[in-house]
């Protein structure tokens, strides 16, 4: 029987386990546990340890308790040492092999999500010669709340500290610190764009991939207002001393209370939700995140970093499907007007969208406003910087979904269609060939800096379309034309 793999880091030895041809190391700390005096502090370097550290089980997660019904099964793991990484490497690559590295950042709207999901297992990447590092970061108010007397963007600082760990330690697992691709989905994709805009992350990665990016660039004013609401609900002052006096569960309860919206009874309240954006996430603090990521990209930030970016076709279209019976009585142009779309853009948007019926159009509008327009804006902002755009167009055969929904593409990128929970959104027989093609593109990008289709450029605006129907790769011109009226 093969011996359990051992890696020797600068902080100490870690003993993982072998799963087939993959060496797996779970729960390796990249920073000290953010508790006690380190709560609400920037991540602190981990202390060295003696002997071997067991890395055979997932580490503690920042997510607490049951996250409820989510599309990606992301379990919570109790414990204090929540700042940790999981590493998946070829079993024969533990000795300085200088392999490319993919660092994955989970999503969850900056308030949930877990690196302990089996959907993020990197076995297929290890099989193909790419090391995967799945990182954790503080979420919710602990990670992104603006607290007087505490550093802002603690969750983003955690991500940067994890990338620094990769730079310093990945050689021990056979990785090349000069070939690091940072990638993430949803809030993880938004985090990728924030990292590209952050001077503190400069030099820590050589390529980037933003999957369905949900940009969380919260203004300083909005972050201050939220902190005051959370403090008021908890009955403390809105400063570090006040929040530090609260147990973690009380802060979480106050956060949930402050973020719970009034019931969405009208289109105007939905418009408010769309206009306000995510209430928690990276804050424009003038330091770690000096300005909005899209503004930074337009001014040349990370212009030397190759970027793959795209979305599913119907991220949130299903959200309004349950109201189809009521919404059929609502004139679509009127609904879009209430949602804030000016008349001058309304007709162009309706002419270009492929969706029909009020429920589909309004759900699609949420998709386009929150995610797909971000893809188009980012591609435009990058100018001639190396950028590849894609669309995930394969519609789920599951009757309750029926579209290319949010998260559906993740197991295809990881070539992990057999993971628990995949059939719930992809059906019993998801197309293996599609996963092979998509995964191969990520491997090529991590290895060579090119995913294998033509770059985006201003005249043709080309994008790769991933759909199981096509027998050959499809590259579509003007691929995001339907959201152009929103940008």
UniProtKB/TrEMBL annotation:
GO MF term list: hydrolase activity
Record PROSITE patterns: CARBOXYLESTERASE_B_1
Domain Carboxylesterase type B: from-to ranges: 6-321
Superkingdom, natural source: Bacteria
Pfam family, one: COesterase
Gene3D superfamilies assigned to the protein according to its UniProt record, in alphabetical order: alpha/beta hydrolase
Hydrolase among keywords: yes
Signal peptide from the UniProt entry: none
EC number(s) recorded for this UniProt protein: 3.1.1.-
Top EC group: hydrolase
Keyword Hydrolase recorded: yes
InterPro entries for the chain: AB_hydrolase_fold (IPR029058), CarbesteraseB (IPR002018), Carboxylesterase_B_AS (IPR019826), Type-B_Carboxylest/Lipase (IPR050309)
Swiss-Prot/TrEMBL keywords: Hydrolase
Family of this protein: Belongs to the type-B carboxylesterase/lipase family.
Name the record gives this protein: Carboxylic ester hydrolase
Organism: Microbacterium enclense
Upper lineage: Bacteria, Bacillati, Actinomycetota, Actinomycetes, Micrococcales
């Amino acid at each position: 029987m093969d011996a359990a793999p051992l890696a020797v880091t600068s902080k100490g030895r870690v003993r993982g386990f072998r799963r087939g041809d993959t060496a797996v190391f779970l729960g390796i700390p990249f920073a000290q546990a953010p508790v006690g005096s380190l709560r609400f502090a920037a991540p602190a370097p981990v202390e060295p340890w003696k002997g071997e550290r067991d890395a055979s089980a997932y580490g503690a997660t920042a997510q607490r308790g049951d996250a409820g019904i989510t599309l990606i099964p992301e379990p919570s793991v109790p414990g204090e040492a929540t700042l940790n990484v999981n590493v998946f490497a070829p079993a024969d690559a533990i000795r300085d092999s200088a392999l490319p590295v993919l660092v994955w950042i989970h999503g969850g709207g900056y308030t949930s999500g877990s690196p302990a999901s089996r959907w993020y297992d990197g076995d297929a990447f290890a099989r193909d010669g790419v090391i995967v590092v799945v990182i954790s970061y503080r979420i919710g108010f602990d990670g992104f709340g603006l607290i007087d007397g505490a550093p802002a963007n603690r969750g983003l600082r955690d991500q940067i500290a994890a990338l620094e760990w990769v730079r310093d330690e990945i050689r021990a697992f056979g990785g090349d610190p000069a070939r690091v691709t940072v990638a993430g989905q949803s809030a993880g994709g938004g985090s990728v764009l924030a990292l590209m805009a952050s001077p503190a992350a400069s030099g820590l990665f050589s390529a980037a991939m933003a999957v369905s990016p949900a940009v969380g660039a919260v203004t300083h004013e909005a972050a201050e207002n939220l902190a005051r609401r959370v403090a008021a609900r908890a009955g403390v002052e809105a400063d570090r001393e006040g929040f530090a006096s609260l147990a973690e569960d009380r802060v979480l309860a106050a956060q949930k209370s402050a973020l719970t919206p009034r019931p969405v009874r009208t289109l105007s309240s939905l418009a408010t939700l769309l206009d306000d954006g995510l209430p928690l996430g990276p804050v424009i603090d003038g330091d770690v995140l000096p300005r909005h990521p899209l503004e930074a990209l337009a001014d040349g930030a990370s212009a030397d970093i190759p970027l793959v970016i795209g979305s599913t076709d119907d991220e949130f279209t299903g959200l309004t499907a349950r109201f189809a019976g009521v919404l059929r009585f609502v004139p679509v142009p009127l609904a879009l007007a209430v949602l804030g779309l000016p008349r001058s853009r309304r007709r162009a948007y309706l002419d270009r969208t492929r969706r029909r019926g009020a429920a589909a159009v309004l759900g699609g509008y949420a998709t386009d406003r929150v995610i797909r327009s971000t893809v188009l804006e980012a591609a435009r902002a990058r100018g001639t910087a190396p950028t590849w755009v894609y669309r995930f167009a394969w519609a789920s055969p599951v009757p309750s979904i029926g579209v290319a929904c949010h998260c559906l593409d993740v197991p295809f990128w990881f070539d992990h269609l057999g993971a628990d929970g995949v059939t719930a959104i992809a059906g019993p027989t998801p197309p293996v060939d599609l996963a092979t093609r998509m995964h191969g593109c990520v491997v090529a990008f991590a290895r060579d800096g090119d995913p294998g289709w033509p770059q985006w450029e201003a005249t043709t605006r080309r994008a790769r379309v991933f759909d199981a129907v096509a027998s050959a790769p499809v590259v579509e011109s003007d691929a995001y034309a339907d959201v152009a009226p929103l940008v």
